[in-house]
Specification:
Number of helices: 11
CATH topology of the largest domain: Hypothetical protein af1432
Structural class: alpha+beta
Shape: globular
CATH class of the largest domain: Mainly Alpha
Number of domains: 2
Number of strands: 5
Length: 264
């Protein structure tokens, strides 16, 4: 904030325009910082990665709200409008705001793909900066794990599985680093324990990707809720048996179990 006060004016205006895009930008900032630290970036580089995440979608403040929040598939014409947001954001940030070149680059190029099929410039491979490649992964992950007017959220672990199958989209090394930074069972994942209980992952354990902290809340054997209990799996005999598809259970309160800011 102290180094880039004018840049955050753009972020504040974005919040006024569209609350989801603002929260998405904050979330992408967080995962960019986590990924940068995991990749061993310097403190200064991690700060730039976070700033880039905060500002990557400011161009959406110039998108028509009826397109931005349309509760259905976009037409080709509407999608072409939305594809203009990286360049609109870049133009906004380069004029007047003291934004680092790296953050400008992420704003402009977070929709580029490694195989050259992205936009706006169809860059490929090493033509795309490391931070922009990081931004591409973080942007998509938060978008597909979020509920929107036109789609329900995918669960975190399932999202990683699907993203791994999109050949040519992401830098493989950066994607693998991202998976390790969020965990094999990312925060918010519904899992079945070997004991037959269901739990939600609430935090990662850097020392063991397969032993996060979880909150158990349901017994599949009894078919009923149980008192919520926080368990550190590094100090428990119970283990994760596997991921459980949330859509099979119809739970409506999962986010409240792991996200303290979830609306009740």
């Amino acid at each position: 904030l102290a180094h880039n006060p004018s840049a955050f004016v753009s972020l504040a205006r974005l919040k006024d325009k569209d609350d989801y895009t603002y929260m998405h930008s904050v979330a992408v900032c967080g995962v960019m910082v986590a990924l940068g630290r995991h990749m061993g970036l310097s403190d200064a580089e991690v700060r730039e990665a976070g700033l880039a995440g905060l500002l990557h979608d400011v161009g959406k403040m110039q998108m028509p709200l009826e397109v931005l929040n349309k509760p259905g598939a976009l037409t080709d014409a509407e999608f072409n409008v939305m594809r203009g947001h990286p360049e609109r954001g870049f133009d906004l940030l380069k004029d007047g705001a003291k934004v680092p070149a790296s953050a400008l680059d992420v704003c402009l190029h977070h929709h580029e793909r490694m195989d050259g099929t992205g936009y706006p410039h169809k860059l490929a491979g090493d033509q795309i900066s490391v931070l922009a490649r990081m931004g591409a992964v973080c942007d998509v992950y938060d978008a597909i794990t979020s509920t929107r007017p036109y789609k329900t959220a995918w669960d975190p672990a399932g999202s990683l599985q699907r993203m791994s199958q999109w050949k040519g989209h992401f830098d493989p090394a950066i994607f693998q680093a991202f998976v390790k930074s969020v965990g094999i069972y990312p925060t918010g994942t519904l899992v079945r324990m070997q004991s037959g209980r269901l739990a939600v992952v609430v935090d990662q354990n850097p020392a063991s990707l397969i032993a996060p902290r979880v909150k158990v809340f349901y017994s599949t054997k009894a078919g009923m809720p149980i008192p919520v209990q926080l368990i550190d799996l590094t100090a428990s005999t119970d283990r994760i048996a596997g991921r459980e598809p949330p859509e099979n259970w119809g739970f409506t309160h999962l986010e409240e179990l792991w996200n303290p800011n979830a609306r009740r």
